[in-house]
Amino acid sequence: MLAALALAVLAAWPLLSANGLLNTRGGGDSPFLLQRLHQLTTAVADGHFPVRWMPDANYGYGYPFYNFYAPLSIYITAVFRLIGFSFTRSIQLSQLAGFIVAAWGIFALSERWFRSRWAAFLSAAAYTTAPFHLVNIYVRGDSLAEFWAMAFYPLLILAVDRLFDARPAQRKSRLALLALAYAALILSHNISALIFSPFLLLYILLRFVPSRRKLADLQAPVLALLLAFALAAWFFVPAMMEKTAVQLAPVTQGYFHFSRHFRAADLVQRGLLFEYNPDGGIAFRMGLIQFLSIAAGSAALLRAGRKRKTGQPVIAFILLTFAISTFMILPLSTLLWEHLPLLSFTQFPWRFLSVQAFAGAAAVGALGLLPRPRVVVPLLTGLLFMAAFGGLRVDHLALSDADVTAVHLAQYEWFTGNIGSTVSAEYLPAGLHPRPYTSAWLNRGERDAAVTLHGDAEIRIVNRGAVRQEWAVTAVTPAAIQLPTLNWMGWEARIDGRLAPITPAANGLITLDVPTGTHTVSLRLRRTPIQLAAELFSLFAFLLTGWLLRPSKKWAGRGYVLPVLAVLAAMTAIVRLRPSPPPPPLMAEPLTADFAQMGYFHHDVGGTLFDNGAILTAYTYTPPADGETQVTIRLEWARLPSAQTMVTLALGTPSIARPAFEPAAQPLLSQSRPMAEQMVFRFDTASMPFSLFVPQLQVEGSVSLTPSGQKRGELYLRPLLFFADGLMAEEGGRPLAVRAISAVQNLYGEQGQRGNITVALEWFTERPSAVNYNVSLRLVDANGKDVSQWDGQPGYGFQPSSLWQAGVWMPDQITLPLPSPSSSPPYALVAHLYDVTKADDLLIGRLGVLDGEGGFVVHQPAFELPEGMDTVYEDVIFYEDGQPLIQLRGTDVERSGDGRLIVRLYWEMLAETAVSYTRFVHLSHEGEPPIAQNDGLPMQNSYPTSQWQAGEIVTDEVTLPAHDGYALTTGFYQNLDGRWLRLQTKESDLFIIQE
Question: Which of 31, 142, 200, 313 could form a disulfide with 600 if both were Cys (CB 3.0 to 4.6 A apart)?
């Protein structure tokens, strides 16, 4: 046993060999563990237990992560943290404990099955070195839950074995132990519990059927499983019954659909040394040595069965479990994946590698029953370790506890796009669209930025806890206020002690109506009825389990109980009362991150190494002085390459790191310099919005490296918060407006490659908004057809409309593709602002015109009629609600060379309107339907009447096929749910231009 545990420690040594967090960004997200641990311990310290809520996740808005994610592995980790270990050391010790428990469990089970310590030791070695067991730590670093689930597999089967073999006096306690083991599996990883439960039932049946036991003998295991469900009910019942409240669809779609992750001919790697590369799913396979040893072990297992060295149920269970789990990884099992309930939530068929590894390790143990085990077992153990660790290279994120804070974790979410340590943000409320990418906390540094949506009120935070808040509100008028907390079931609001209804807001935050006066507004997250009932049920089950485990009178108070309790109490006192060491000094090494490999901002010990030999040893920021807008960034280098090398430093949001954007988002500011030992970059940020930015560092012809020598992605320095004091309040002219600043075109390449255009624009709003709108930036040709389009949130989600500062123009930048070469310029550049949950545009703004050759003219209203109109009108006026709105001042009508009819309409706006009327030009015979028409927004469907200014002259050109003997008419209408409301002149709802 001690040798098996020593192997477990040896397997964990690569993660323990250096200070810091084992990095697995290439195939997993090990920093997730930092956030899960930090938020759980923060909540527990504030009295929130059992923990369901991450108070600082989701950019500070909160996140119901622990209501849906099995928490036991993090509770185990939290024990180490709460007794004084650092965040990173606590995670390491939890991972070490998982190795030890797994090795001990499989050793005890195999020793029971094979009655041989050599066989038990070999099983422990095979399970410890099973590739998927190691992949959960060294590749899928965030999968601590799944790793611990594998530790409970053998303990669960061992508990079944002991229950079936128990004497009558032992059945109650062993029933309780089986219940605890199964509950631990459910609470460790619900998906692993889902896929392992059928194999658990298989073993129970195999133990029951061949022995010709009475049906009553099934009573104990059945009761144990029911008790396990009761023990875990506090977690899985709310998770199942409240799952419709969150966005779970992404976890089974796209990349996460099971059909993308089967293994067939590639089930087994071909190299002797296991390859941990996650690209293409290479790491999620069997190892060759593992496969060969399992094959040999299966043969040895059958041999042991013939010689009756082990029981038939054991042999059947091992072989069937290995065969079935392998089948579930292959495409042959597609039908089961498509039709079995809940199985699709497993996402990856290769997750059955965990069950396969358990059965395979048991089979390998049978090789210890062969002659000369003193030779066979050490040789095979050495071979398994060589195959498992010979190709392993690890990196660590150098972090102190000062680097693991709520704000650093929020910045990690911001940089990677992960919310609350979930890739798909699947636990956001179901109706929250689009999802957030930032918050006022990150963009402005305001943790408690409450907003007055309507009315006039001053709001101040008084007290904040994990699930409790208190605010002081002074309302000059009745006001609608929004608090920076995600509206989730269970939140209760009180105004001066009285319950107040929470109004659902489009951006998902808590909104309240507050009457005039000074008030105390309090929030508290309470248990839902389902959560409360499930917790009470589990509490009763816990007490029942304790009663079943009560010691007998013969040794109660003697033997083990009091000594064990005394030792635990002494250890706790020593740990808690020992003098606390001084906190470690902040590391001096530069903080960096990259999206591809090392996604958490960490210290590069010894500097950041590039593959050309250069080392970034340090960098510093100098923020703008009072009244200035210049940010200075200084870089220090060592070991400069011999050839002159250019260094580019760019400022942007994490959108520039996102590979999903097409075309790629561009930095807001960028500069290049020849590399030198001391480099200074100065950026004038006057045109940038207040926000959190990340400097991107590029070295010409070179990439940065991890400490183990692996290539990193684009390198980023620590985030830089910029307060845009230069943004001055001004009138936008309308409650909501947009305007263009510039448009820079990258034209088609020599091979006809499609170019793009980067548009700098600004938004204006009179009042704060509770909606995160989407923008659709479009290029429209002369026929009013959209020939290029980009849709998404303003600033790629990093300047959301709910964070726009009221009364100022908010800068933004978006890149969209240019049209294909087959389209014809010029193009109107148009911005549409809309709510993704509704069909209508909130705002349509004509920004300017591109000539197709790099020129861009910003749209400017005209207030004078052009000269030389064919026809001039004096009294053609369309009225809105009886008031003059639009006057037709003149027209030009001509035939083009190809026979088409070109109609130019010259409109004058007499008063402003909020309605975007559809303008029509119809060619028809009197009393008959139109035979040709152009209905749309004026100016080629790019300039709505809602954006026209009073006194503005709008030149509106329409092209129609020419016909003789028909009337040409024009006018305006509005489609109101199928009712066509037309603007009226004094005589009609249309005007005849020409007959």
Answer: 31
- Beta-carbon neighbour count of residue 219 at 10 Å? 12
Q: 759 has which bridge partners?
A: 743, 814
| Chain center to CA of 544 | 40
| Residues 586-632: tens digit of each pLDDT | 456 789 999 889 999 999 999 999 999 999 999 999 988 877 788 99
Predicted local confidence at residue 553, as pLDDT: 57
Helix (H, G, I), strand (E, B) or coil at 639: coil
* Ramachandran angles phi, psi of 63, nearest 5°: -160, 130
Q: Considering only CA atoms, which of 887, 845, 858 is closest in space to residue 733? A: 845
Helix axes 529-548, 219-241, angle to 10 degrees: 160
Burial call 737-748: b when 16+ CB within 10 Å, e when fewer = bbbbbebebbee
Tell me: the pLDDT tens digits for 633-659?
A: 999 999 999 889 999 999 999 999 888
d(CA 362, CA 359): 5
Dihedral angle sign, alpha carbons of residues 43, 45, 46, 47: positive
- Give residue 883's region: left, alpha or beta (phi > 0; psi -120 to 50): beta
Of 665, 633, 664, which Cα lies nearest the Cα of 649?
Answer: 633
Beta carbons of 410 and 419 less than 8 angstroms apart = no
Enumerate the H helices of 351-429 as residue ranges: 353-365, 373-389, 406-416
In terms of Cβ atoms closer than 10 Å to its own Cβ (0-12, 13-18, 19+), residue 549 is middle
CB atoms within 10 A of CB 499: 9
Tell me the three state secondary structure of residue 480: strand
| Phi and psi, residue 328, nearest 5° | -70, -15
CA distance 946 to 832: 13
Q: What is the SS3 assignment for 365? A: helix
Q: Side chain identity at 218, as an amino acid letter? A: L
Q: How far apart are CA 645 and CA 233, in angstroms?
A: 61
What is d(CA 791, CA 814) in angstroms, rounded to the nearest whole number? 10
Reading phi first (left if > 0) and then psi (alpha if -120 to 50, else beta), residue 30 is in alpha
First-to-last C-alpha distance (Å) of the chain: 102
Distance set, CA 915 to CA 829, 863, 944, 981, 983 (Å): 21, 21, 8, 12, 11
- Collect contacts of 197-206 with beta carbons under 8 A, ≥24 apart: 198/324, 199/317, 199/321, 199/324, 199/325, 199/355, 200/156, 200/157, 200/160, 202/317, 202/320, 202/321, 203/157, 203/160, 203/313, 203/317, 204/160, 206/313, 206/316, 206/317
Token pair in block for residue 622: 């100098």
Maximal C-alpha separation, the chain: 114
Average pLDDT for 395-419: 95
Residue at token pair 């000269």: 867
Quick check: bond before 238 cis, omega within 30? Answer: no
- From 640, 632, 599, 633, select the one nearest 619 (Cα to Cα): 633
pLDDT band at 912 (very low <50, low <70, confident <90, very high): very high
Helices (H) then strands (E): counts for the chain:
20, 38
**Nearest-CA neighbor of 787 among 827, 811, 819, 743?**
819
The number of beta carbons lying within 10 Å of the beta carbon of residue 831 is 24
CB atoms within 10 A of CB 264: 9
Nearest to 658 by CA among 698, 688, 696, 613: 696
User: Whose CA is closest to 297, among 105, 157, 98, 127?
Assistant: 127
The DSSP letter of residue 825 is S
pTM: 0.93
Q: How far apart are CA 240 and CA 227, in angstroms?
A: 18
Question: SS3 for 885?
Answer: strand
